[in-house]
């Protein structure tokens, strides 16, 4: 088969890299005064999630050091719902793979799925909270604030979501997602978050924003009194920085890797234009995508292949690396059953492309349009077929890196990498 050549392009996305992360964390904590009213020796629980956040070890390490400088006793706990196969050791292992261990952070890591009950919201939602965190003298959250992969609203992923889904552990995550089907996940996150704040245990949250290059761009300690409104403002800022695929439509989207470290859904539905329930092209901010082919899974996903069902075809190596227990727990907890389905699997990239190109509706493979990306978080460099049509409003933001190149395959029939990964 002779598929069209591609251009390797780079999106001219502004860099907003924060120069001195530890200094920024310390300055923010000083200004927020979270230690006010706490006695020396107080135990401070620092909640950390399961996403692949840039410089997470530096950010959390700086927060630990600040609390210790105030004569407090900080410890880390996983605030990640059902992730890590919904076990205490599994969630501690997730943190360890991000470099967050007792030895590296200089404080204990306490991981348990035990929860305490916090009462019921006006909507009838029973609220629970990580018992280890609740028993501490105060809780500080560390969360990336960004758009949510599965819904759109004024309050999406961030501190409030961590207070609900993260602190709720497996029991809470299951319950909240069930209510989310009835009243919407944003309403659940707001209501549960308010209930958690009402305990007086939350001291504040360290909001992390990243730029289009997945680099730390803004750090802000948000006090409890302003948390809900300020998080809405920070999410709008974060959304304005997010990149997208600069095409109107594409027959094939080739994705090198899915993974929980890239997105809670394995692949960001708002990039690939799918949703977690199997619907096609629901987002007008993304290109119309005909077929999605995924080649592999990132090691930091720990075998959790949630999102595999949003693909139309996958490389067989992805299926081999899929750890079914953690994948199923994640999908069953969130209710995203379509994300668990295993699509057609092929022994090589060539075998896949040659088998399913006709399902795009094209009669000639040389007319196929495609885009090839590393993952749904890194959209700085992309391979775009010469047949694809760019979005006019983004043409000036693209730098072409050389002449057109043919798709090349190795002796196994796998693509020779164009994206330097």
Q: Identify the CATH homologous superfamily of the largest domain.
A: LarA, N-terminal domain
Query: Residue ranges: pLDDT <50 for 5 or more in a row?
Result: none
Q: Could you estimate the helical fraction of the residues in percent?
A: 25-40%
> Topology as H/E string?
EHEHEHHEEHEHHHEEHEHEEHHEHEEE
Main β-sheet: number of strands, strand sense, barrel status?
Answer: 8 strands, mixed
User: Span between N and C termini?
Assistant: 25 Å
Quickly count the helices. Answer: 13
- The percentage of residues in β strands lies in 15-25%
At CATH level 2, the architecture of the largest domain is 3-Layer(aba) Sandwich
Mean pLDDT figure:
93
CATH class of the largest domain: Alpha Beta
Number of strands: 15
Side-by-side strand order of the widest sheet: 12-11-10-9-13-14-1-15
Radius of gyration: 22 Å
Q: In one word, what is the shape?
A: globular
Query: Structural class, from helix and strand content?
Result: alpha/beta
Instruction: Tell me the domain tally.
Output: 2
Would you tell me which CATH topology of the largest domain applies? Rossmann fold
Set down the secondary structure blueprint.
Blueprint: E1 6-11, H1 21-32, E2 43-48, H2 56-69, E3 73-78, H3 88-97, H4 102-105, E4 115-120, E5 126-130, H5 131-134, E6 138-144, H6 159-166, H7 169-183, H8 185-197, E7 202-210, E8 216-223, H9 227-241, E9 249-258, H10 269-272, E10 288-297, E11 313-315, H11 316-321, H12 324-334, E12 344-346, H13 349-356, E13 370-373, E14 381-385, E15 398-400
Parallel strand pairs: 2-3, 2-6, 6-7, 9-10, 9-13, 10-11, 11-12
Antiparallel strand pairs: 1-14, 1-15, 4-5, 7-8, 13-14
């Amino acid at each position: 088969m002779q598929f069209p050549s591609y251009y390797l392009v780079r999106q001219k996305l502004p860099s907003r890299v924060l120069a001195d992360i530890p200094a920024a964390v310390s300055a923010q904590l000083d200004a927020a005064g979270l230690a006010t009213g706490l006695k020396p020796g107080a135990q401070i629980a620092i909640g950390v999630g399961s996403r692949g956040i840039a410089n997470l070890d530096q950010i959390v390490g700086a927060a630990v050091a600040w609390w210790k400088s105030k004569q407090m006793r900080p410890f880390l706990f996983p605030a990640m719902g059902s992730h890590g196969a919904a076990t205490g050791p599994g969630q501690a292992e997730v943190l360890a793979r991000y470099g967050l261990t007792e030895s590296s952070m200089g404080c204990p890591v306490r991981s348990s799925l035990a929860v305490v009950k916090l009462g019921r919201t006006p909507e009838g939602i029973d609220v629970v909270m990580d018992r280890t965190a609740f028993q501490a003298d105060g809780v500080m959250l560390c969360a990336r604030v960004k758009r949510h992969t599965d819904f759109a609203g004024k309050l999406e992923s961030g501190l409030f979501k961590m207070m609900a889904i993260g602190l709720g552990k497996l029991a809470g995550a299951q319950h909240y997602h069930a209510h989310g089907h009835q009243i919407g996940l944003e309403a659940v996150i707001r209501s549960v978050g308010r209930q958690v704040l009402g305990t007086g245990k939350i001291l504040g949250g360290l909001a992390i924003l990243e730029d289009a290059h997945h680099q730390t761009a803004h750090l802000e300690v948000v006090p409890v009194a302003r948390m809900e409104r300020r998080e809405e403002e920070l999410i709008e800022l974060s959304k304005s920085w997010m990149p997208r695929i600069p095409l109107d439509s594409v027959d094939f989207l080739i994705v090198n890797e899915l993974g929980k470290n890239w997105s809670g859904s394995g692949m960001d539905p708002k990039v690939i234009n799918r949703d977690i329930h199997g619907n096609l092209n629901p987002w007008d901010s993304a290109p119309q995508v005909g077929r999605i082919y995924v080649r592999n899974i990132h090691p930091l996903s720990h075998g959790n292949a949630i999102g595999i069902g949003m693909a139309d075809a996958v490389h067989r190596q992805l299926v081999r690396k899929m750890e079914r227990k953690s994948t199923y727990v994640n999908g069953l907890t969130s209710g995203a059953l379509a994300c668990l389905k295993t699509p057609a699997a092929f022994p090589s990239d060539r075998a896949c492309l040659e088998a399913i190109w006709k399902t795009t509706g094209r009669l000639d493979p040389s007319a196929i349009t495609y885009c090839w990306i590393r993952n749904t978080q890194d959209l700085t460099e992309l391979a775009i077929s010469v047949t694809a049509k760019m979005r006019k409003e983004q043409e000036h933001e693209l730098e072409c890196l050389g002449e057109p190149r043919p798709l090349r395959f190795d002796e196994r029939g796998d693509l020779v990498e164009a994206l330097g990964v």
